[in-house]
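SAMPLE LOG
Freezer: B-3
Tube label: C17
Construct: single chain, 165 aa
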Amino acid sequence: MNAQAPTAYGLSSEARNLHWLLTNLVDEVPGIRSVAVVSSDGLLLLSSDPGAAAAASPAGQPGAPAGPRGSSADLATIVSGLGSLTTGAARLMDGGTVKQTMVAMEEGSLFVMSVSDGSLLGVHATPDCDMSVIAYHMALFVGRAGHVLTPELRSELRKSMESAQ
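STRUCTURE (predicted):
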């Protein structure tokens, strides 16, 4: 049984399926450090929860967490902000809808992809990841998750994240 099972217990079948899809994304795609699904208003809906090992040491120190400061909430904040920035830029440039954003850094990569109704999928990956493989698997996740991410399901996921903290 995976680490998401206790969190997913008691949820609807749609919510459990989304947890399963997220767990598979993290487990099956090499190079993924952490994943967050964020609502249009910036709230964390789903997470791979890399924060478990986080608090021990500050970033940059030996044994530092692999995710952004090791926190799902930090990744959600970054994804939400980047999504807002790129949407605004696309509007100013008459560029249409933003489909995907990728930020390549020395020590990792960040991918943000639209899911539905303004919700976003964010992936923090290792610097040596295969970007095309990650983008492909993110698109698969979006294709499978986008149509079920209804307002009711987003509300259920938000409540489950709040109760898990």
